[in-house]
Write a structure and sequence with these properties.
Length: 174
């Protein structure tokens, strides 16, 4: 499988191993976090052939020949960089355990739907659990990324105070 842009051969995995187990234990890809192992927390989120997936619910054998992108494979530029920066700036990171899954999920959402409203953001992130920060700071980080990219219109009712932007990306003074 192609993991974060590198072709990786998996040796020694069992037929019933999850993609999460193979990524972490066989390939040493620790950017993917192991938490619930039931597909309910989002800590192990990856992009599997461009689609968001909980790697603990995917058999590694089913991922044979696929392209797997973890938070590490998103790179340090563009949208992923902006998301990481805003998570820090908005205080959406405390212990950091859930952050990789959130960054992958937000990247997926804003790639597909850059102007998602608050309800759409909440629905897209419903599969991710944070036990430290609370979701207000995470939502603020997502909205701040949208503002930085110029997709929030002045007066958006659900935009956090202080991040309103014009469509051309300039500050509107608010």
């Amino acid at each position: 499988m192609n993991v974060d842009g590198f072709l990786r051969t998996v040796n020694g995995a069992r037929i019933g191993d999850s993609l999460l187990t193979v990524l972490r234990d066989t390939l040493g890809v620790t950017a993917v976090k192991d938490a619930c192992e039931q597909g309910r927390c989002g800590a192990c989120s990856v992009l599997l052939d461009g689609r968001l997936a909980a790697s603990c619910t995917v058999l590694a054998a089913d991922a044979d020949g696929t392209r797997v992108v973890t938070v590490a494979g998103l790179g340090g530029v563009g949208l992923a960089r902006a998301i990481r920066a805003m998570f820090l700036a908005e205080g959406a990171v405390q212990c950091g355990f859930c952050t990789p899954g959130f960054v992958v999920a937000v990247t997926d959402l804003l790639t597909r739907h850059p102007d998602a409203d608050e309800q759409e953001i909440r629905e897209a992130l419903a599969g991710n659990i944070c036990r430290c920060t609370g979701y207000g700071r995470i939502l603020a980080a997502v909205r701040a990324v949208q503002a930085e990219r110029g997709v929030l219109r002045s007066g958006d009712a659900d935009a956090p105070e202080g991040i309103h932007r014009r469509l051309d990306g300039g500050a509107d003074g608010g």
